[in-house]
Amino acid sequence: MDALAAGSSPVHALCPLAKLFATIIYIVVVVSFGKYDLAGLVPMVLWPVLLFEISGIPVRTCFHKLRFVLPLVLAVGLFNPLFDRAPYLALGGITISGGAVSMVTLMSKGTFCLMASFLLMATTRIDALCAALRRLHVPGIFLTLLLLTYRYVGVMTEEVAIMTDAYKLRAPGQKGVHYTAWGSFLGQLLLRSMDRAEELYAAMRLRGFHDHFHYAEAAPCTAKDAVYLVICIAAFLLLRFVNVAALLGSLLVR
Description:
The protein has 13 helices and two strands, in the order H-H-H-H-H-H-H-E-E-H-H-H-H-H-H. It is flat, with a radius of gyration of 23 Å. The N and C termini lie far apart (46 Å). The protein is 67% helix and 4% strand. The chain folds into two domains: 2-124 and 222-253, no CATH class; 134-206, no CATH class. It has a two-stranded antiparallel ribbon with strand order 1-2.
C-alpha cells in the first residue's frame, strides 16, 4: 500500500482533504440508494473505475488486496432471498424475487464502498491522510492509534508467521493449528505482541515521540482540488437523482 500511495498521477497529486471528502460523500450517496434500486446504483461504479484508470492502479489489484474482506461483505445479503420471496420482476419468463434484487444491491453497495476506500488509501500516504484529519480537528490520540495500527499491523503478522512456523515444526503433517491449541496460541501471540510493542515504543521515545502525531505537514488545498471536489459532488448527485441506466436504455430503444 505504501508503494501504491507513493505513485505519481493526477489522483495522487490531489489534496488528501479533497480526496477524503469525496470518498465520504461517495459512500454516503451509495448507501442512500434503496434496496431495490439496483439499476440506479450500478452507474456509481464508474467513479472508482475511472479514478483507478487515471491513477494507474489496476482494478484487479484492489480485489486482490481485499480478497479476504470481500467474502464477508458479500455474505451480508445472502439470506435476503429467504426472507423476501415476493416476485419483483420477470426477465424472459424467469421471475426474480425482491430478495434476490436486494441481495445483489447490498453486495454492490459493499463492493463499491470498499473500492472507494481502497482507492483513497492507495493514492494517499497514511501520514498525509492523518494530517488532513488533523485539519478537521480530529483528536490526536485517534490519529496516533490510526497511524500506529497501520504501520505496525505487519509486526503482529510477522509474529503470527513465526509462531505458525514453530507450531508446524512441532506438529509435522498437521494442517493448520489444532483447535485445542487455539487458546495457548492466542495467549502467546498476545504476550509476544506486548513485548514487541514495548520495544517499539521505547525506540519511538528515543527518537523524540511525545504521545502525539505531530511530524507530518498537511498539504495545502488549491483551486484544482476544489474543482475536483465540486465535480465529484455534482456527478454523485446526478447519478443519485437521475436514473442514468434507464435514460440510456430509453435512448438506445429509440
